[in-house]
């Protein structure tokens, strides 16, 4: 557990959150609840946006809350409050119990098994308070945007540069005796600019996010890269309809892996709304693709010793040599499927996608001729069938080199075929959230153009 002296910036000490959790559990038991789960949290932060050198917004946020879930047998009720007073705690528990009384019994409802609760609470180095005064944040944002404008006179406008710092801490507890929690931080610098004029305008952006402010890319590097991306998109054109290899740039490759996670998560599986039903032990990716889950990475953006059910997380291989080894299950969805929780209530924990040693330029050379996708539009994914159709923009590649920007096209395929058709995963790994993956090259997709 982090040292309590590290959390002096919060309005309430971690011990106070722990006592509030104990009070909820105690009162729920007195009111007749057979089981109870509680989350107590507090967070604060600031965000600054500068546009064309002028401060556009300064936002401060400070939040706190208690969420209470109670069970009367297999009847479940939930209520929440932002008031930490004793009276509010009692009223919130009473409200949750009243809701449970009028809720139909669900045979799968209830806490996860007591034997699965987390007991080890390693310090994963997730809290790096950034004492950044608002004047300092404004300066960083101005430097970021100025670096973008300095790239070329063709960078004609800006949607703004932003700097955000966020800190939070929480306690989760339940009537099995589980109690755990810790402070976290998350920071980012972002820039979005416009190049060109009139009908030829193009926009693009870039950002960096990390637990620690010192781990962020420099504001100048972010602004410079955002500008170069916008400039590179100028004079985009359509291409003729064709079937070609498609390379998903790393930020978009993460969304592909997100589609995989959704398809093998408990909610989609028990509702039978996934194209990967009954795929455990089956070949889902080529044998050169493996996916690991690593919840204990220091400073990881999705690290944590337990999930939202209090279940201990663990290192595991989700996909080994292309074969699906495990789903993403909470206690509830596992019971619906007649299985055991995988410690994924609330989502996945640092998925690392392994698939090759080629850098981005190496992927372009391997593709030879095809489409590099850098932007996706719309939400055309049918998870029941796996059908995939998205508006897209990017670049046409010939001879392993980018030739010209492409816009106003649609790419289409089926996720089952797309996953099996992954030729390579790049070494240009980008970490912006729970999935760490490089660019992904797919052997063939339908590209609809002119």
Straight-line distance between termini: 58 Å
Encode the helix/strand succession as letters.
HEEEHHEEEEHEHHEEEHEHEEEHEEEE
Strand runs, count: 19
Overall pLDDT metric: 96
How is the main sheet built? 7 strands, antiparallel
Percentage beta strand: 35-45%
| Portion of residues within helices | 10-25%
Structural Rg? 24 Å
Explained architecture:
- The protein is α+β, with helices and mostly antiparallel strands.
- It contains nine helices and 19 strands.
- It has helices spanning 14-30, 86-101, 134-151, 219-232, 250-263, 266-270, 331-337, 360-367, 415-420, and strands at residues 35-51, 54-72, 75-81, 155-174, 179-180, 183-195, 202-210, 242-248, 290-293, 316-320, 323-324, 351-354, 370-377, 387-398, 401-414, 422-425, 430-431, 435-437, 440-448.
- The strands form three sheets. Strands 1, 2, 3, 4, 5, 6 and 7 form a seven-stranded antiparallel beta sheet that branches. A six-stranded mixed beta sheet has the order 11-10-9-12-18-17, with helices on one face.
- Strand 6 (183-195) and strand 7 form a beta hairpin.
- The longest helix is centred in the first third of the chain and has 18 residues, at 134-151.
- The protein is globular and about 70 Å long.
């Amino acid at each position: 557990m982090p040292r309590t002296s590290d959390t002096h910036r919060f309005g309430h000490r971690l011990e106070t959150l722990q006592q509030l959790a104990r009070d909820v559990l105690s009162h729920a038991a007195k009111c007749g609840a057979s089981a109870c789960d509680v989350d107590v949290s507090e967070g604060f932060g600031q965000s600054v946006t500068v546009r064309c050198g002028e401060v556009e917004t300064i936002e401060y946020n400070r939040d706190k809350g208690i969420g209470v879930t109670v069970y009367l047998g297999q009847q479940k009720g939930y209520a929440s409050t932002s008031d930490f007073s004793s009276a509010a705690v009692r009223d919130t528990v009473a409200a949750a119990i009243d809701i449970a009384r009028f809720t139909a019994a669900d045979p799968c409802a209830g806490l996860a098994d007591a034997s699965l609760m987390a007991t080890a609470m390693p310090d994963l180095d997730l809290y790096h308070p950034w004492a950044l005064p608002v004047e300092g944040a404004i300066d960083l944002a101005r430097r970021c945007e100025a670096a973008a404008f300095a790239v070329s006179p063709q960078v004609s406008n800006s949607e703004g540069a932003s700097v955000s710092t966020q800190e939070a801490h929480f306690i989760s507890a339940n009537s099995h005796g589980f109690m755990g929690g810790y402070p976290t931080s998350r920071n980012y610098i972002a820039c979005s600019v416009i190049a060109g004029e009139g009908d030829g305008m193009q926009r693009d952006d870039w950002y960096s996010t990390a637990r620690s402010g010192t781990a962020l890319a420099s504001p100048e590097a972010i602004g410079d890269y955002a500008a170069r991306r916008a400039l590179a998109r100028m004079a985009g054109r359509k291409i003729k309809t064709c079937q070609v290899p498609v390379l998903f740039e790393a930020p978009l490759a993460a969304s592909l892996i997100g589609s995989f996670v959704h398809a093998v998560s408990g909610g989609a599986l028990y509702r039978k709304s996934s194209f990967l039903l009954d795929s455990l032990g089956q070949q889902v990716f080529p044998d050169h693709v493996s996916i690991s889950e690593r919840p204990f990475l220091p400073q990881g953006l999705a690290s944590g010793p337990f999930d939202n059910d209090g279940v201990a997380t663990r290192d595991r291989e989700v996909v080994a040599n292309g074969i699906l080894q495990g789903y993403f299950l909470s206690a509830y969805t596992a019971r619906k499927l007649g299985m055991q929780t995988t410690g994924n209530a609330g989502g996945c924990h640092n998925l690392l996608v392994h698939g090759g040693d080629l850098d981005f330029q190496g992927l372009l050379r391997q593709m030879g001729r095809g489409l590099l996708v850098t932007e996706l539009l719309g939400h055309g994914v049918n998870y029941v069938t796996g059908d995939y159709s998205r508006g897209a923009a990017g670049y046409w590649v010939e001879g392993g080199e980018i030739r010209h920007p492409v816009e106003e096209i649609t790419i289409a395929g089926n996720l089952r075929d797309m996953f099996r058709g992954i030729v390579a995963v790049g070494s240009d790994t980008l970490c912006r959230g729970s999935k760490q993956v490089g660019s992904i090259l797919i052997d063939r997709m339908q590209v609809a153009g002119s």
